């Protein structure tokens, strides 16, 4: 048994590439353990870990008692338990199946860990549709969670926040749940006056390098194939290929007017659209994909946070999470920091 706890220790579940971890630690907590099943995300977490233990394992296979044992803690010793359980199969479907399927049920793992660890507070990130989802039988998922957390002595505060109001160069709406001791007042962070633009956050980066060269800035690698460069060249800044008039059929191919996120070029003077797993946006001026580093900057990751794993093309397939998808799945660190700081302020953590 070892005692390596910090003043305000935190435990991260479903850690991904570490966006929540960065924000939580920037708010004054110290993440002592991160649990993530994806091999590439776990490698990224280890590459950037600063005295943080990383377990590459399915959260469902972990006993919370092991955290208490390994870190020499007792229930109540964790200041913040946090995570963003995968849930896209449930909350994005019209059926809103809630906990019907495997990924939807993963959010219950937060409750399981909270039941034993008894953290001072809990932070959960989900897609906005989560707040409208239902369990089998029709009960809303959020109502079920509120009941389970209430039984553990927590009040649940839930709100949909847009990252553009919290220092991120991207419009990205996410449901944020904060659990604090029953009766404890809590207020979500105030909105910032304005968001940085794509041009501002990409400023200062050198030219990216091909896949077989070492980039001067980590992960600033261009993998755009020649055929896609040709198609991208038709797209004006801020527009998308299906919207451009008089495009040759051989370039337009099977795109329709509804494909507004495919072959989309970003605008330097605006915030980015939501970075998602299915597509990679294009550089505002150059005929290429944005690099993983550029996507990371748009999400608010610092350049020192190095991503490990493969880099795929726009529609390519790789096993596990490649660098672009690691960023697409991540919680932007500035948003995480704002919420975690509000929790610390509410609880009087100095």
Structure summary, number of beta strands: 7
- The helicity comes to 25-40%
Provide mean pLDDT, rounded. 91
Strand content: 5-15%
Total number of helical segments?
A: 13
Tell me what the CATH architecture of the domain at 9-190 and 331-347 is: 3-Layer(aba) Sandwich
Alpha-beta content class: alpha/beta
Give the ordered list of helices and strands: EHEHEHEHHHEHEEHHHHHH
The spatial strand order of the largest sheet comes to: 3-2-1-4-5-7-6
Measure the end-to-end span: 28 Å
Radius of gyration: 21 Å
Q: Quaternary arrangement of the chains shown?
A: single chain
* C-alpha geometry: globular
CATH topology tier name of the domain at 9-190 and 331-347:
Rossmann fold
Q: How is the main sheet built?
A: 7 strands, mixed
Given as residue ranges, the uncertain stretches (5+ residues, pLDDT < 50) are 89-101
Q: What is the top-level CATH class of the domain at 9-190 and 331-347?
A: Alpha Beta
| CATH homology group of the domain at 9-190 and 331-347 | Vaccinia Virus protein VP39
Q: Mind explaining what this structure looks like?
A:
This protein is α/β, with parallel strands linked by helices and 350 residues long. It has a domain at 9-190 and 331-347: Vaccinia Virus protein VP39 (Rossmann fold, 3-Layer(aba) Sandwich), CATH 3.40.50. It has 13 helices and seven strands. It has helices at 19-26, 39-48, 64-70, 88-91, 102-105, 108-117, 141-151, 198-202, 226-232, 249-252, 292-299, 323-329, 333-347, and strands at residues 9-13, 30-36, 53-56, 80-83, 121-126, 154-162, 173-181. It has a seven-stranded mixed beta sheet with strand order 3-2-1-4-5-7-6, sandwiched between helices. Strand 2 (30-36), helix 2 and strand 3 form a beta-alpha-beta unit. Helix 1 crosses helix 13, helix 3 (64-70) crosses helix 6 and helix 11 (292-299) runs parallel beside helix 12 (323-329). The chain is globular and about 65 Å long. Mean pLDDT is 91; it is low at 89-101.
